[in-house]
Amino acid sequence: MTQSKPWIPYALILPSVVFLGLLFVVPLVQTLWLAVSDNGTPSLANMTTMVTDLHFGRSVLNTFLLTLAVVPVQIVMALTMGSMVAKMNGGRETILWIWTIPLGISDLAAGMVWLSILQNTGYLNSILFGLGIIERQTAWLTYQTPVALFIGIAIAEIWRGTAIVMIIIVAGLNQVPKEFKEAAEIFGASPWTRFTRITLPLIRPALQSALILRTVLAFEVFAVVYALGGRNFPVLVGEAYNWQNQNQNYGVAAAYAVLIMVISLAATLVYLKAVKVDPERLP
Amino acid sequence: MANIVIDNIKKSFGAFQALKGVSLTINDGEFVSLLGPSGCGKTTLLRIIAGLETSTSGDVRIGEKSVIGLLPKDRGLAMVFQNYAVFPHMTVYENVAFGLRMQKADDARVKKQVEKAAGLLHIEPYLDRYPNKLSGGQRQRVAVARALAVEPGVLLMDEPLSNLDALLRLEMRTELKTVLQEAGTTTIYVTHDQTEAMGLSDRIAVVHDGRIEQVGTPVEVYNNPATRFVGGFIGNPPMNFITMPVTGGQVTAGAQQFAVPAQGGDIVLGLRGETVERAPTGHGLDMHVRVAEPMGSHLLLTGSILGQPARVILPATETVKNGETVGLTLDPRRLTWLSPESGVSYPAAA
Ligand SMILES: Nc1ncnc2c1ncn2[C@@H]1O[C@H](COP(=O)(O)OP(=O)(O)O)[C@@H](O)[C@H]1O
Ligand SMILES: [Mg+2]
Q1: Is B130 near chain A, with CB under 8 Å?
Q2: What InterPro entries does the database record attribute to this sequence (chain A) (predicted)?
Q3: A positions 55-94 inside 8 Å of B (CB)
Q4: Which positions ≥6 away from B280 have C-beta within 8 Å?
């Protein structure tokens, strides 16, 4: 390694820093200002409008409920799927490839896929009708069927977003040398004990990343909800979208954006504390 | 308490035969090394004994009971892995206690056993630490302590010292020997390092290409290698192999004559480098010395005998120049004779 040109690393990093600065920090500051100002003077008017809006409470509740329903299921599924492929000898790549197909589909397209299944004339009704379980077309996605709507959206989100969690978890599982599990086996640990006492603690870093990433994405849920429920199921990003495009009120939209960011940051902090990764206890 | 019978174990990975029929009996309390070059099937055999791998055919009996089909934990054994496999997220104490915890031992027994094992391996000062902060040698001790804490009938070790530097390896070797002698555990020790196997073992099983080539005490396999492979693998420098003509059941080396177990044709002389003595040229075998290396404790000569490559050792007091030809006297009691075709040695009595 030569030390003669210490500026080289900085020069190489500079473009990405400039790029991020222009496209992330500047809009961020602008949005923050937009949210807490009114006609160029500091004001909490946008915040007040947001909080007193009819849809505000429900959109917060829906977003949290959806996150609470989707993220744990996805983590458990990803762990199960990851552990299953880890046991396979041949065909691992093929299975992983199939499982990650939803990743290649945009979230709006994913919403459309599930709309075609769950709408009145969709596949689900056809099948149920064909089996004689229902007599006529049943609506699943209206404001009169909130539970069905919620379940439909949750299933679509799980279908769409589990792969990314699984990829992170599979990467984490691959990092755990098989000797750890074998040693545990020799000393009498059952498969379940090996999983809980050896594997899980050793994939903490991956688990933490997956939880943070997936939770932040869950708070940003929009397109799937929009495709399936429209405004029947208000969520935070959906409200921001409405204030921006329908009401042309950028200030309130910015207030929503800031709220989402604060929630995401808070969730991240909670995970960093709760799923602590102690470098001293890693391989 | 636990003798081990390995009965004609075969193992194939697809079309590749890793073990081609291995049989070995290990007595209770005995320390047996599986010694062989990398890829010869040592780890595979050990994993089959442990139950981490299934054999294609054959039987393993521990304490007279067949363990084929039993889970590793029901075989009454413990294992030390090559990379230690000490759990990084548990303290040293919990690592050593792991096997006992799995057996649902009460805290008093756990404490007693952990302290005993930790004492044997001198790791008491680290019991509260995490393995990450320990050196390779200390982790190695933790791995051994974890295995001994459950007081296993059988201890399996897979190249436990190979990740340590040379000095530490020597130190740990001596210590392992002391500790295991004290524990009296039947031990199978896998290594590719012949000095390790020689120093530690009651008996050595030399593994080559999926087969056991010879089983014997360190002195037996060193002095009377069953095959050319064993002679070449054990000893540093390895045994010299010199093909010589036989006339009338005799081999002539200068003024020395030896009766050999063949009538005519060729025979291979297996010659340990340190069994020769310096003599005037023409007395025994003459060696053309290409390089003479004074090693301090001895003088190592590399060159050729009868045009065939050879390495011999003379006392440090001798002086030999590069390019010189020296005469060597052979000790008839310390020669091995091998068939040039099969590479198998003739019985030592000949
Ligand atoms: N799971 C496996 N699949 C295919 N081949 C294997 C497997 N395990 C070991 N082998 C092969 O079996 C042979 C013996 O391996 P191993 O027992 O690990 O050798 P050693 O421990 O003596 O170095 C090697 O050629 C190795 O490549
Ligand atoms: Mg090996």
Answers
A1: yes
A2: ABC_transporter_permease, MetI-like, MetI-like_sf
A3: none
A4: B327
Supply the pLDDT for residue A266: 95
Contact B87 A180 (CB under 8 A): yes
How many domains would you assign to chain A? 1
Give the span between the Cα atoms of A172 and B11, in whole angstroms. 31
Nearest residue of chain A to residue B148 (CA atoms): A187
Give me the CATH number covering residue A96. 1.10.3720.10
Provide the percentage of residues in chain B whose pLDDT is more than 70: 99
Range of the domain at B36: 4-229
Closest CA to A221 of A117, A68, A79, A98: A68
- Which of B170, B194, B229 is at the close of a domain? B229
Chain B residue with minimum CA distance to A200 = B89
Q: Is A182 on the interface with B (CB under 8 A)?
A: yes
Burial (0-12, 13-18, 19+ Cβ within 10 Å), B82: middle
Would you say residue B85 lies in a domain? yes
Mean pLDDT for the stretch of residues B171-176: 86
Q: What is this structure's pTM?
A: 0.85
- B224 C-alpha vs ligand 1 centroid, how far in Å? 29
Q: What is the CATH number of the domain that holds B49?
A: 3.40.50.300
Number of Cβ pairs closer than 8 Å across A and B? 62
* Residue B93 covered by a domain: yes
- State how beta strands B31-35 and B277-279 pair: unpaired
Mean pLDDT of B223-237: 95
Q: Does B83 contact A180 at a Cβ distance shorter than 8 Å?
A: no
The whole-number pLDDT of residue B350 equals 42
